[in-house]
Each structure stands twice: as C-alpha cells, then as structure tokens.
C-alpha cells in the first residue's frame, strides 16, 4: 500500500468514526435530554412568595455568661434574638462582632425584647474573665448581649452543629494558621430566633463583606444588612405567643 493510499484510508476511518459519534449524539443523547426537559418545571410559582424553612429549636443549652451567671437559651423564649459563634482570639469574629453585631445592637438595644447571644466554640480558653473583658470592649450589656461558655467543648460543638445547624467547626492544625486566625475555623453567619424559639433565618454578612464577596456581588452586603434589620423589626412588632 502506497503512502498516499494509506493516508486516504486513515482519514476515511476518521470520517466514519466522526459520523458514528454524531449519530449517537443526535439519535440517543439529545432526545434523552429533551425528554428529561419535557418533564422539568424550569420555573415554579414565579413571582410568588418564597417558602420559608423554619427550624424549631428542640434542645436547650446551659451556659455561663460574661457576668458569671448560669443561664439557658430557653430563658430567651418570648424574645427575638440573634445568635452567633465566636471565640475571643478570633480576628474575624472581632471584626464581625464590632461591625455587624454592634450595628444591630445599637439599632435594637433599647427594645426590651431584643437580645444577642455569642457562644464560644473554645470554652477551654474563653473563661468568664476573658468573656467579661471582651464584652466590655464592645460595650455589651449583659442584660441584652450574652457571651457564653457552655463548658464542654464537644457538647458545645455538637449543639451548634446539630441543633442550631451551624456549619461544622474545624480545628486548625497548621501553626501558621493558628497564629493568624486562631484555633478554630467556624461558621460566621448570624442566625435569627423568634419569640417561639424557632430559627427563622441566617445571614452571612461577614462573607458578603469580604473582599471575595464584594467582588462576586458588590451590592449583596448592603442588601443582606437591610433585609436582616427589616426581619428583626418585623418580628419585634409581633406580640409574644400565648403559652
């Protein structure tokens, strides 16, 4: 077989293979995709009210606040409260607590039914004295802003992850990361709990404020802040449920 004949044979085979692939795509794959799409509802209830997914808090948590008082989260039944994870040496918490939480505190602190709760993910280190100093630095009054130590680290993490449904807490192992950001990586979101002890929303304000968040969606941070303030105002305007 000459070189020219070999080339013709090679390209003929390639052409036949390409034709076979196109047949499979057009006769099998594309019809299958179309049949799946016929059963899909691409838009459901467009313009309708979004379904609200609420989380009833089924378990209680006992802890000690920055004043050394023994408290339980159930003590806040009948109030509207924001709950967040933190630990005292976390630099990201310091920014969030001094920015978003402090702004919410200033907005609603005069309402007798508003409260903020920060639960330490590092109870081994965040003893009452440290919590008290932290609260004082933020100007947080124990009557409506708690910094809590729930005692046992594993119990605390399990409650935050499984009962309140915060994202999983990860213990850092890299010394450089620990030096820069502290021992734990944890959820920075702010949850809102209504008068009936039900989580009714979560706002990732710290993520939206971050450099990456602003780059992805420049207007998201302000929109989320406004939405959260409006939601808190709406809940505070409601009358407490009867027992």
From the 3D coordinates, which CATH architecture of the largest domain would you assign?
3-Layer(aba) Sandwich
Number of strands: 10
C-alpha termini separation: 95 Å
How many domains would you count in the coordinates?
Answer: 2
The first-level CATH class of the largest domain is given as Alpha Beta
Largest sheet: 6 strands, mixed
Radius of gyration: 27 Å
Task: Quickly count the helices.
Answer: 8
What does this structure look like?
This protein is α+β, with helices and mostly antiparallel strands. It folds into 2 domains: 35 residues; 182 residues, 3-Layer(aba) Sandwich (Glutaredoxin), CATH 3.40.30.10. Helix content is 46%, strand content 16%. It is built from 8 helices and 10 strands. The strands form 3 sheets. It has a 6-stranded mixed sheet. A two-stranded antiparallel sheet has the order 2-3. Strands 7-8 form a two-stranded antiparallel sheet. α2 links the parallel β4 and β5. The longest helix is centred in the N-terminal third of the chain and has 37 residues. The termini are far apart. The relative contact order is 0.14. The N terminus is likely disordered.
Could you write a compact summary of the structure shown?
The termini are far apart.
Q: Which descriptors apply to this entry?
A:
single chain, 243 residues, alpha+beta, Glutaredoxin, 2 domains, 6-stranded mixed beta sheet, 10 strands, globular
């Amino acid at each position: 077989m000459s070189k020219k004949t070999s080339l013709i044979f090679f390209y003929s085979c390639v052409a036949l293979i390409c034709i076979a692939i196109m047949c499979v795509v057009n006769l099998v794959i594309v019809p299958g995709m179309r049949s799946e799409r016929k059963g899909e509802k691409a838009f459901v209830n467009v313009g309708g009210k979004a379904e609200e997914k609420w989380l009833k808090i089924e378990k209680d948590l006992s802890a000690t606040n920055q004043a050394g008082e023994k408290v339980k989260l159930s003590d806040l039944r009948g109030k509207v409260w924001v709950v967040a994870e933190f630990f005292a040496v976390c630099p990201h918490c310091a920014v969030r607590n001094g920015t978003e939480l402090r702004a919410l505190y200033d907005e609603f602190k005069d309402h007798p039914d508003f409260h903020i709760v920060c639960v330490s993910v590092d109870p081994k280190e965040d003893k009452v004295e440290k919590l008290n100093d932290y609260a004082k630095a933020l100007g947080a009054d124990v009557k409506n802003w708690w910094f809590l130590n729930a005692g046992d680290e594993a119990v605390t993490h399990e409650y935050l992850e499984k009962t309140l449904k915060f994202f999983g807490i990860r213990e850092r192992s890299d010394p450089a990361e620990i030096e820069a950001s502290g021992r734990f990586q944890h959820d920075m979101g702010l949850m809102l709990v209504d008068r009936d002890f039900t989580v009714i929303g979560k706002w990732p304000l710290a993520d939206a404020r971050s450099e990456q968040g602003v780059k992805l969606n420049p207007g998201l941070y302000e929109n989320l802040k406004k939405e959260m303030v409006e939601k808190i105002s709406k809940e505070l305007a409601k009358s407490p449920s009867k027992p």
